Amino acid sequence: MKFNVSSKTLYNYVSSVSKVINTKNTMQILSNFLFTLEDDQLTIKAADMENYLIGRVLVSDAEGSGRFCLDARRIVELLKEMPDQGITFDVNDENFEVKIEYSNGCYNTVAINGMEYPEAGQSAESADKIEFTCTTEQALKGIENTLFAVGNDQLRPQMMGILWDVKPEKLIFVATDTRKLVKYTNSTSHPGVECSFILPVKGAMVLKNVFAKEEEIKVTVRPTSVTFESASFTFDCRLIKGSFPDYNRVIPYNNPFIFTVDRHSFLNAVRRVAVFGDEGGGLVKFKFTSSEVTLRACDNSFGTSGWESVPCNYSGNDLLIGFGSEYLVEILSTFSTSDVVIKLADPSRPALCLPAENDPDCELLMILMPMNIVD
Fold this sequence. Notes:
Strand content: 35-45%
Number of strands: 27
Mean pLDDT: 94
Low-confidence stretches: none
Number of helices: 6
Shape: elongated
Helix content: 10-25%
Structural class: alpha+beta
Strand order of the largest sheet: 10-6-2-3-4-18-17-16-11
Oligomer: single chain
């Protein structure tokens, strides 16, 4: 078989598809791409036994059809350094010798028979599936706003991913590690169906990095896997088993004390004060008054301490509460508005963190659990 393709175009596809390949594989063939030529379309597939990703690219001067495997690392590195021009792949169908030619050079290698590449079948689940379509922006914003809050506790596997809670009129994305929780709601497009699934971190990262330039994604949900399909890519991902915690039960909607502050000033103050705090827990104490908030941290082991005050608007009783600086920095860094609103109740109840204003058809809220303090 033989075909011609732009080196730049092919590099964009193989570098994207390679993101699903593990650094170490139990099966050596999974370190390869599976190339399949049919008519004038070349598909590039990579897999890790739980997930697979396929890219589709148009080629010219195609002769014959078939399947062959090439080492992924070598192909990506070759195309990365190759000038942007047409290259020709000539594959011997009998001994799988491969010749890669372009105007200034020629490279020779040996492929593996594509029939040896493992197939990831889903026919057993094909009857029990739910399908909907969403915009790529809708999906990527959900991932970007929640990914940092995903847990890493092996004893709570259900929290090691992002919950997609699909409603007929909106998409809800939720992640939590028990210290913080993020809920992002986007209703820019209406799925028209109702279902839920937990997408693991690797799947979320692949979706975020590979589908960024796509316009629309078709989502097919099955009992144990989900498939994301666009005009250029198909990604099948194994889901996390189990039930996600009932996030609505832990959201404190009735916190009476309202704190509004400039996000950048507050964020930078937290970062500075945390430098002189306890590296283990990262505890920072916050004392709220009507016109300012005072931040304090100390590390008795090294005799360090620091404090700062930041102007704010605060309505409520004077309050002293402690938060982990690392978690608070993550939350403040995720917001994009100039001001943030934090609603409080007492030193033992979680804080509700909100942007000063939400984007149209979107709602973002975050919960941060306080830390015990001794004043």
